[in-house]
Each structure stands twice: as C-alpha cells, then as structure tokens.
User: Fold this.
Amino acid sequence: MIIDQPAFEAACVRVVAGWDMQGVSPARIGWLEREVYALIGSVYDNDDGDFLDQREARLDSRGAPARTNPFMRGLRVIFADRPKMLSSALRERTALRLMHAYRHFTPLSALPAFLRHAGQRPNLAVIEPGFEDWIAMHLAWSAVVTEHRGDYPAAVQRLEEEWWDKPSPFKHGAPRWPGDALDASPGQP
Assistant:
C-alpha cells in the first residue's frame, strides 16, 4: 500500500478515532496492532519517512523521537495530537511486539497468530526458529526498504548472501509463510 501525505494524515485520524471509541480490551489492542502495523509498515516499506517527519513536528520537546523502533515512532506520531490517549506502557509493549513481527516479515493476515506465539515481551535480538530462511530471502529479494528492520544475526546474514545466487522466489507467486504452523486460534494479544 503506497499512500500520500493526506491519506497518511487521514489514516492517523482514523486510528485515533477508532481507539477513542471504546475502552482498552484485548480485542481493541489487537485492532490497534493491526492498524498500526499496516500503516507504519507501509510507510517504512516504501521509505516514506517524510510523512512521519511532517506529523512529528507537532510533538513537543518532552520526548525525543524514537528512531530505533519505527513502531514506537509511528505510535508517537499517530497519537501526536492526543499523546495521553495511549499509555506509555501500552505504547512501548505494542511497539516492541510490532517490531518483532516486522523483523520477521510477518504478513498482516498472520499478525495475530504471530503475536500470540511471540508473547507479550519478545526479544528483538532473537529470530523465531524456522524463520531464518524466510527473513534472509526477503532481505535479499524484497523490493521494500529493509534498513528499518534492524540488524540480524550472522546466520541470517549468511543465508541472505546465499539467496543472491538463487532465482527470485517472487517470480512464481508468494513464498510459503513459515508461520503457518503457529496457533491460529483466537487468543489474547
């Protein structure tokens, strides 16, 4: 999804309004995670960080921009006009979980199951077992920007180098998501 500045602004307003409509519950947190993951993931995948820069200018000087986790920055920017609407603890936990999913190139449709599997406080330095080749393939062959995903372990980097010698897996449809075996039953985020 490639968006322009007005569409980004409208999406931010929609997320804030949607969050404001009901109280905090596991279902509402799941909704927030999906909306933010889709919006901020799209912004960074298309290297449109200017959208965040323009909206971030509204933030006051009480907190420095969160440059290390794009989802922390994204949540701050989305809620720039109403920063107290989302508690700092929920913002930090949500950003951590979404960054973990983003580092694993998790498709939006698989996000709830992946987040249930990863738990409440995933370790960003850890790659989930079975995802190494999936990540390496995306790092090597994706048309999207990957620099915002952080550094990967040496084993994943070696696999990425091997992918450069293989034919593109994207020529014949989407590769198989390694998370298909994750629990797909509804649960709490």
